[in-house]
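Per reviewer request, we include the raw input and output of the structure prediction for the construct analysed in the revised manuscript.
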Amino acid sequence: HNNHNNHNSKSNNNNVSSGQRQFQQSRNDNNNNNHYQRTSPIPQSQESSQQSQYQRSGQHQNKLSYNFVTLPCDQRNTYIERGTNIEKSCWKKIISMLQAVRNRPTITIEALEAAIRDYNNGFRGNLSNLRLILQDKSNPIDVGKIMKNTIPFIIDLVLDTENIFYEKERIPFLSGDGSSIVHEFDQYIRFPNSKQNYQNKVQKCSQFIWFTHHQVACLLANAFLCTFPGRNSCDDQRQIPSFNFTALHTSPHPKSQQAKLTCILHYFERIRLEQICGQNKKYSWDQVSVGYTLEELKYDFSWEKDVTELGVVHIYDSESITDFHNQIHADFANEQIGGGVIGAGNVQEEIRFSVSPECILSRLFVRYMKPNVSLVIIGAQQYCSFQGYGSEFRFTGDFIDPNAIANCSQNSNRFYFDTHMTCFDALFFSTSSNDHSTSELLEQHHPQNIKRELNKALSAFCINWCSKKPIATGHWGCGVFGGERELKFIIQWMAATVSEREMSYFMFSDKRTGDAVKKFIGVVESWGGLTVQKLFNLLSLYRDHLVECSRTHGDTKKPKPLIKFLTEMILAE
């Protein structure tokens, strides 16, 4: 364990040294290919007491750990054979069933379905979306290769799980519990031009975990074939999302669902061609890594006291976040990371995770996000081009990510794609209309809700270890979550300012909000010296205005728009 937030403290220096010694010992003892930190198993008495409440009744008796991911090949993944009282290994059954499918002269969907149903008793449907993809001759993907090349490759990855992940390897759940976990990060990850002069102002801790491309592909292959115990649906008791692709395979099959599955199939085919067929001659999949870090804000920030002047913001009317490279891309996340990416969702987060499937892996080990927590994904490249949104989302072909490969440090043979995505969830409000009533605005402007959103955005933008890339964001939480667009812009501007980052704000062709925001920015620049503290206090005055409007007119008369109110208050001084 290693604390990244108070580097100047003596106690932290001691922790760093201890963490580095622990890492170096594990590195000497273990294969370099498995490059997340080895962690000691939970003491038997503690693990047993935690497991007992997670054992499944019926045929399967999976002893699911509370603190660590249970891999399909884990010895704890067992079942009771029907008609007997004999406990047997689920993994051996998985291997037997998939090996039989793999050995067939021609792999069929029916054989694959039968195997999955046999080892996963929660898989009650069929591979209907895969079947429809194979029947769609207009699909941009080469459907002829799916059953001939891609599916065998996915099966091979699953069959090789034990070699890729040693039995004693434990993947911890990341939950934001006040601790900092660093998995090999201090040894060889060094981001250039990282500045940390705001660390005394914003107290955070980070939990890092890194996987090679080989490991990511293996875990996603297991999810594709639904081999993870207890992960067909969300587990509210353990606060973990689903991970098996059960719903994606079996849910009602509009075109947008097939598009998501097509993106994932294309990802596997790209990986197969690059690594197995040697199309990527420069880097092996055991050299390139993807990182996942849970960023936790340790204390509520004192917004009412911060005298930092508002930072630089750029407004883009019709461009997309993904059009801009060398910026930290915002993911408008769900509390359950990835939202409905392997279910029925097809909006901003689900689309982004579909075209960059390495992001989906975060669902394996990231618990439901707390109010003071966000997730940053490093090195997840985009594999697919696409068009459309919602039910109109479609896969359109291959995409070559233009971001450069970066060396993790000068003396390291590890690399990552220089991409950063910060995932943060907004509060859910009862309306998805952009025409909010006074009572609805009062709810959003409640001081507790304002501070929650400010602190959430700060946890996502104030990334201590990352270079000063701008934040590329937009109408966070303003779709089905019902957020008020002008308020969400102000909140993110304040958070970007405290984080000492420029902000690129994308209006997604929202002319009304774009015009109001651009006028307000001009007023702020002309007025000069507007601070976070002043803007926070003006938000409090706007709530007073809403209270007065509600008392006088109820919901029959609209209050002034937020930006107009703020502009008038600034110009009046």
